[in-house]
Every structure is written in C-alpha cells, then in structure tokens.
Amino acid sequence: MPGLVAWHPNMKSALLSSTQTSLLKLVWISVVGLSLAHDLPADDKLLGLSAVSGNVGRIQRWTQFIGKEPGYITDTIPSDDWATLTDYGLKFFINSHAKIPRKERYEIGLPMFPTKDDAGALMADNAARWSEGASGKYNAKFRGIAEDLVKAGFGHASIRLGWEFNGNWFAWGLDHGDAAHRPDRARAFRECWRQIHAAMMSVPGAEFRWVWNASVGYEPEGFDPALAYPGDQWVDCVSVDIYDAHGEYYWTWWKAPDNHWPLDTLRDWAWKALVEGVHTNLETGLPDGKKTRGMNDYREFARKHGKLFVISEWGIWDQEVIVSLNPPKHLDSNGPWGSGDNPMFIQRMYDWIKANDVHAAAYFGVRNPELPLDHSLTDEGLGMTTNPLSRKRFLETFVKSDKDSIPSNSPAKPIPHSTPAADALHEGACGLEELRRHARNELN
User: Fold this and answer.
1) Is there a single domain that holds both residue 382 and residue 443?
2) pTM of the model
3) How would you label 107-133 residue by residue, b for 16+ Cβ within 10 Å and e otherwise?
4) Domain identity same for 421 and 348
5) Dihedral sign computed on CA atoms, order 15, 20, 25, 28
6) Which residue range(s) make up the domain with 424?
7) Which of 158, 146, 148 is nearest to 195 (CA)?
C-alpha cells in the first residue's frame, strides 16, 4: 500500500501487494464449463456479473441466483508484471473461460500497464511509462495479447482498457503524481489507448468493442476526465463503475450513529453525489455548491458521442465483514466507506438503469474477508447470504422473483476448495511459484 494518496472504494486491488493480488486472482481461477444461451434477451445483459479473474464458481452461483445465465460477464487479466500480463496471467484467463461459449458476452479488463516493470519496480513510479506507451513501445506486447485472445475465441469481446483511469490505485491512474501534470497524463493516456487499439485491431479476426471506463465518486479537484477520452473512432462504449460508497457521508454515521444525520438521509446524499454530482454540507444539510461528475454526466457524455452506455461494475458496500472481525478491521483510518446492506441502493440502481437505456450492467458479486470487502448477493460458498435485504430487493426488481433458496441467517457450511492451488493458498502453505506449479498441473 505504499504511495497511496487517498482511499477510494475501488482501491480493492491496491490494498494488496502485487504478489498477494496475483495469488488471490490465480486462486479464483477454475477450469469449469458454463453454457451461455445463444440468444439472450436484452434484459439479461442487465443481470451481468463481474466474475473477477476466472471465478467460474461465482458465475455458477450467480446463474442459480438469477435463475438464468448472465448475458454479460466482466473480468480482468492478472497483471503483476509484463510476463504475467502477456503470458502467464493471460493464459490463466483464457484457460479458465475456455469452455464458455458466446465469448462476445465478455468485457475484458485489460491493464494499460502491469503493476511492475521487468526489473520489479512499480510502474506507477516510472514516469517514462506514458511516453513509452504513447510512442508505441509496448505495441508488440498488446498485439500478442490480441492474437491469443482471438485464437481463444474472444475476437468479438469488449476490451475495457485502463479501467477506472481517473483514480490513483492502478498504474495507469491519472491521479498518480502531481496535480499540475494531470492534463499531460490525460493526453498521454489518449495516445497510449490509440497505440494499443491500433496494435490489437491489426490482428486478423480482431473485432473487439472498446470500453472507456471511469470510476464514479472519485474526481481529482479541477480535473476534467473528458481530457482522457481517446476519440470517437477509438471508443465504442462509455462505461462507469459505481458503488454505494462515499466516505464523505458514511464516515460520520459510523463514527457517531446516534449523534448525527440518520443513515437513510446520508444514503440519499451519497446517491445524489454519485449520480448527480451534487454534494451536501454535513453541518447544514443543504447543497454546498460543489459539483463533480456523476453517473448522469457520463450517461450524457455517451449520448453526445453516440456511444453505448455500460455499467461495468456496481454494488453495495457492506461493512459487516469488517466489524465482525476480531479485532475489527477498517478500510481507512477515518472509518468504512459503505453503508452496509442497502436495498435502497439496489432499488435506485434498478430505477436508474431502466430509465437510461443502459446497454449492459454487471454486478460486482465479490466477498473477500481478507481485505475486507463484501458486495455479494449470493452465498459465496458460505451456505448463507451476508446481505439479505439487498439480495431480496435484487430478486424483486431485476429478477422479478420473490423466491429465495438461500437462508439469511443459517450457519455457514464448510465447502471444499475447488482446486489444490486454492487449498494451498488457504492454508498458507505455498508461495507464488508453488501456486503457479499447482495451477499449471490443473490446466494440463
């Protein structure tokens, strides 16, 4: 975590060391087949899932939860270093999804840079990465990635290149470094995008759809994300990631729940900030005059440019995992960012999606007690759901069902790990190299 400037909910990757991130991502991979229907209604794309690095078990649980196969799946390629991004991690991604047909349903999160360079130094600390990328130095690497993706049947998938570019938690984040040079980094981001786009689309069979993705709720002061827009000929979809997470409001409730605004009021204000970009003064309860870009602004940007609008990640931000730990573990020294099991957020997302011609939306259904984070609406292998109110509201709205097979308060049931690699990491019995050995054996 060294070098983090500020905490934001989408820093879930930055909270882990690069090696830990790779370990977790690789463990999540399992080679299991899942059949997607060949002709899915448009609404099924709104029941999508962000699976997280090949966790097919999570996709299967989501399929059982919604009663049908998801029409949209977002995932990312591990990128601890260049070798992981272009070879080892890429192969893991491809092999984990090898048996899933209809790969055009995928939106693949493609890092613009890996976490570390070939010498093991953090790419975020390498100022030359921008000029090197913009000059095409890395084009051959991305051409190779495209060749492997096309060969594996992903030639019509969507590519979410350099996602959440407006943050500071990835190596391509434009808020890395001094504020004065953000516009320069934005221009470099555009050029890097165009170079990678040209390199990958030059591969025979490459018909990728390109997704320009920002994180809603994080905006460096005085910075216009539109400066990083590559241009209409290089982009097919405008996309956002949005969570019920806004420390500006929720910290106050977690610190003094009986001595401040009611939680539902803070949820109202957080939603207004995330969607409309309008902020509220915590002392007066009135608008404070601050305006940032909300989801409405990105949707309007998509309309003006004639692009499809996608919500690549969305979810509640449940803190029960945090407070239940012994001792309790907080994401930030100020307190948790999310408001917990929040059916109001599910309802509002449903209403907004239905009113705004959203092409696809993927729920970020991850529960990770190690960070700790919990967005999940399924049992995540526990035999129970940790967010019963949000789960129920999702079923009522998106799924149109009042039937639920998972109890909300039953004891957790131990479930065997799906692979020896997962067992080894769970028991703390192996390092990265041993994990790779386990994984190679499982894929052969």
Assistant:
1) no
2) 0.81
3) bbbbbbbbbbbeeeebbbeeeebbebb
4) no
5) negative
6) 414-444
7) 146
- pLDDT single digits (tens) 331-389: 444 456 788 889 999 999 999 999 999 999 999 988 776 666 788 898 776 666 778 89
**Does residue 270 belong to any structural domain of this protein?**
yes
User: In which residue ranges of the chain is pLDDT below 50?
Assistant: 1-40, 320-334, 409-444
Q: Which two tokens stand for residue 289?
A: 């005059």
CATH number of 52's domain? 3.20.20.80
The two structure tokens encoding residue 397:
């709205």
Model confidence pLDDT, tens digit, residues 407-416: 554 333 222 2
**Measured at the alpha carbon of residue 428, what is the angle toward residues 425 and 434, in degrees to the nearest 5?**
55
Query: What total number of domains does the chain contain?
Result: 2
User: CA–CA separation, 307 vs 358, rounded Å?
Assistant: 11
Residue 235 CA, chain-centre distance (Å), reads 19
Pairing between strand 308-315 and 373-374?
Answer: unpaired
